[in-house]
């Protein structure tokens, strides 16, 4: 099973029910509050009768499975979202990414693997959903969200035919500003905003999969000590228990971060990127 389909409604609803408490905890951590979620039975998604608040701004999570995707929508009009969501700082953006990964894992059946997840603020949820192109016969699970006496609704809609188109393109200026007369230099060509605009060989290289490893701690030990290990033996490391974990790609350090729980799985919240070592070549005359 690789694609989201309307026929998966019973399994997705079961996942929403079973993981409601964990999803509540994920949202509570991200928004620094107390939230409780309760899922309702799935119904047919009607583009002409959108849930309340969807015609305005809010938070969206889109996860893809194969060629299709699903959208999780939480409108700002419900009064449940913190103000920083519309313009998050790096720490806030990291929180949103972690929240997206968690919700993407909790609101789908375990038999379905997510290929990618994105969580961001959207100025017009209805327009974004239209761009995502829900298929004919798509489904909707409404999930009640409560925080104290404030009630709202989180909407899970699937499948989307064009999940990549859900997100708005970069805003363009309404009119080109006149350039100063003294500057006759041609404007530099903008950098590609989409990897698909890169040369074919570069796109091909970006599809290569490399092993990704998280290292808790490491040390050098003599072979004699390793051969003498027995069940129950304890090995101590110099690294403190609250130290950051190292993320490596094909044995090359790329980032450090802290461990997080994503559903029932292990995850890493990246806190810093490790730049590659500088290499110098000696030039001889």
Automatic annotation (TrEMBL):
**Mind telling me which InterPro entries this protein's record contains?**
FliN-like_C, SpoA-like_sf
List, for all copies, the residue spans of the domain called Flagellar motor switch protein FliN-like C-terminal: 205-274
Highest rank taxon of the organism: Bacteria
Q: Keywords of this protein's UniProt record, alphabetized?
A: Cell projection, Cilium, Flagellum
Key word Hydrolase present in the record?
Answer: no
Question: Keyword Cell membrane, does the record have it?
Answer: no
Task: List all membrane-crossing ranges.
Answer: none
Q: Which residue ranges have biased composition labelled Low complexity?
A: 176-187
Q: Name one Pfam family in it.
A: FliMN_C
Q: Where is this region: Disordered?
A: 168-198
Name of protein: Flagellar motor switch protein FliN
Organism the protein comes from: Pseudobythopirellula maris
Q: What gene does this protein come from? A: fliN_1
């Amino acid at each position: 099973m690789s694609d989201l389909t309307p026929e998966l409604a019973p399994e997705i609803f079961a996942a929403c029910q079973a993981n409601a408490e964990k999803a509540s905890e994920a949202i509570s951590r991200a928004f620094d509050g107390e939230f409780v979620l309760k899922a309702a039975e799935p119904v047919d998604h009607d583009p002409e009768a959108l849930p309340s608040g969807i015609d305005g701004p809010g938070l969206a999570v889109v996860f893809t499975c194969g060629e299709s995707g699903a959208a999780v929508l939480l409108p700002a009009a419900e009064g449940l979202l913190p103000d920083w969501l519309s313009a998050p700082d790096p720490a806030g953006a990291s929180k949103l990414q972690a929240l997206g990964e968690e919700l993407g894992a909790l609101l789908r059946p375990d038999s379905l693997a997510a290929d990618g997840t994105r969580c961001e603020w959207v100025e017009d949820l209805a327009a974004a959903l239209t761009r995502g192109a829900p298929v004919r016969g798509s489904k909707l699970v409404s999930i009640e969200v409560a925080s104290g006496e404030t009630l709202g609704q989180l909407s899970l809609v699937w499948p989307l035919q064009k999940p990549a188109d859900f997100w708005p393109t970069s805003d363009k200026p309404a009119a080109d500003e006149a350039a100063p007369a003294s500057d006759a230099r041609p404007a530099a060509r903008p950098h590609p905003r989409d990897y698909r605009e890169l040369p074919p060989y570069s796109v091909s290289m970006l599809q290569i999969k490399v092993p990704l490893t998280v290292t808790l701690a490491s040390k050098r030990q003599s072979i004699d000590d390793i051969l003498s290990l027995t069940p129950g033996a304890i090995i101590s490391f110099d690294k403190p228990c609250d130290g950051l974990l190292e993320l490596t790609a094909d044995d090359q350090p790329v980032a450090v971060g802290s461990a997080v729980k994503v559903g029932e799985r292990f995850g890493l919240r990246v806190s810093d990127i490790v730049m590659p070592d500088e290499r110098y070549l000696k030039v001889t005359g």
